[in-house]
Amino acid sequence: MKILSRGVRLPLAAVSGLLAGLAALAVAELVSAAVRPEAGPVIAVGGAAIDRTPPAVKDWAIQHFGTNDKFVLQLGILVVLGLLALALGVVALRYRRVGAAGVLAFGVVGALAATGRADSTSAADALPSVIGALVAAALLYFLMGRLASLPAASAAVGDGIDGREPAGWDRRGFVIAASAAAAASAGAGLLGRSLNGSRGQDAVASRGKVILPRPASPAAPIPAGAVLHTPGISPFVTPNSDFYRVDTALVIPKVDATTWRMKVHGKGVTRPLSLTFQDLLQRQLVERDITLTCVSNEVGGPYVGTARWIGVPLADLLKEAGVKPPSRGGSADQLVARSVDGMTIGTPVEDIMDGRAALLALGMNGEPLPFVHGFPVRMVVPGLYGYVSACKWIQDLELTTFDSYDSYWVKRSWARKAPIKTESRIDTPKPFARPKPGTVMIAGVAWAQHRGIDRVELRVDDGPWMQADLAAEDTKDTWRQWSLPWKATSGGHTLTVRATDRTGQTQTDRRTPTIPDGASGWHSVVVTVD
Ligand SMILES: Nc1nc2c(c(=O)[nH]1)N[C@H]1C(S)=C(S)[C@@H](COP(=O)(O)O)O[C@H]1N2
Ligand SMILES: [Mo]
What we know:
Layout: H1 2-34, H2 41-52, H3 55-65, H4 69-94, H5 96-116, H6 127-148, H7 152-158, H8 171-198, H9 201-209, E1 261-266, E2 273-276, H10 277-281, E3 286-293, E4 304-313, H11 314-320, E5 334-339, E6 344-348, H12 349-352, E7 359-364, E8 367-368, E9 378-380, E10 394-400, E11 423-428, E12 438-447, E13 453-460, E14 466-467, E15 469-470, E16 480-488, E17 491-501, E18 523-529
Parallel strand pairs: 1-10
Antiparallel strand pairs: 1-2, 3-4, 4-7, 5-6, 5-10, 7-8, 7-9, 11-12, 12-16, 13-14, 13-17, 15-16, 17-18
The ligand Nc1nc2c(c(=O)[nH]1)N[C@H]1C(S)=C(S)[C@@H](COP(=O)(O)O)O[C@H]1N2 is lined by residues 243-248, 292, 294, 339, 341, 343, 373, 386-387, 390-393.
EC number: 1.8.-.-
GO molecular function, one term: heme binding
Domain Oxidoreductase molybdopterin-binding: 251-409
């Protein structure tokens, strides 16, 4: 009979656990609106997970989920939390105090995650998790009290057998308490959501007011011959809305440009700088076309794009601060950019000062940087993968040495220095396409930023290499489109591409993984002509 009584109480206890979990998240969301959204437990635990994920797994997640990796991560955390909440409810049925203590323990985990991230500057970041857990523990304790108010003896009489409620079981009381808790959680959660959602309004307004000045040094117009119109080829300039995004931010930083400030300081700096966004806008701006590439891009992958950037030449700023490149006796060989979300990205000072268009970018394709791409200010350095050159949401530039400081990704087993490898990609036909026999246009892009692309060749099956028609070069910092009309014959075929850069180096066929310094190998596409 005891078992039957538990038959009713067990699911109710589990539901109570779930309600407590919901209450914890809802209250935490509300409190995080008063602290900062990044301090909420799901974001904090997600962030801590990202920081601790082994590089291979991180890379796998980027490969398989792309920019959705963050959504999948948060969904995973919610599912795990839900299961644990169910379990805690069941435990609490027997051991009320243990259940409540379990809820508090989760609060501690959330609080540690929130205060342990690089962007956490205040112990207040613990509050959403702590207050959420306290409310949830009290709720679970209270609901269990309701369930326990059902005396064991009377429970044994009525439970389930004849469909009647056990005597003394205050069903109404429990349902009312549970519903009230659910409604209050929903209210708190929604209020927190909307407050968090409107938080960035100052930042959004500040971005809306930015008027990018005409650059003192405009980019040369893109030569007409640089842009092919073959259907299926990547557009030469990647629209901002299609530009790939790779970062560790679960909450996109919303920085108010009117209060933004950036310091330039550190080793070898004789005149430290502190600059406002307005200071940067008033400087001589340059405009350049630069192709950005992610080190996590697999051969044939999508994490590469070209934009027209407007910004301040970094070399000018560094010179003003008194910095010399190592080749001229400078003591700092690494520039570490630090973002508002605690990312650190280290770039060789030599590369920044060697004359290339290393920019502190303010504009992307004619508009202020979109928030996801680093508003108000990010770095872009031609020829280097993003993780060693392209810090978004910058707030600090520190000169140091590679010997004395490892940046975020370097601590996670990526290489200290990472020039972009010469690569080429077939955009069309797509893998496993079924073109008709006859002339089929094969087309794509090839890149070797800051060296330039000299030649692209294509091979069908094991046939001879054929020279592709290269579109005109925009600059050696941008990718080059190419195409080749192919007389397609019936059957299955493997199309393979390889590029040669201006230094005369032909892209290696040796496949390497993305870790530690970028994938290499030839891109192949298999098609069936019929
Ligand atoms: N603050 C911050 N900046 C960052 C990153 C990041 O995680 N956080 N990721 C870097 C990486 S790995 C790349 S490839 C580029 C991608 O820039 P995009 O998202 O604008 O394409 O940003 C770089 N800058
Ligand atoms: Mo990257």
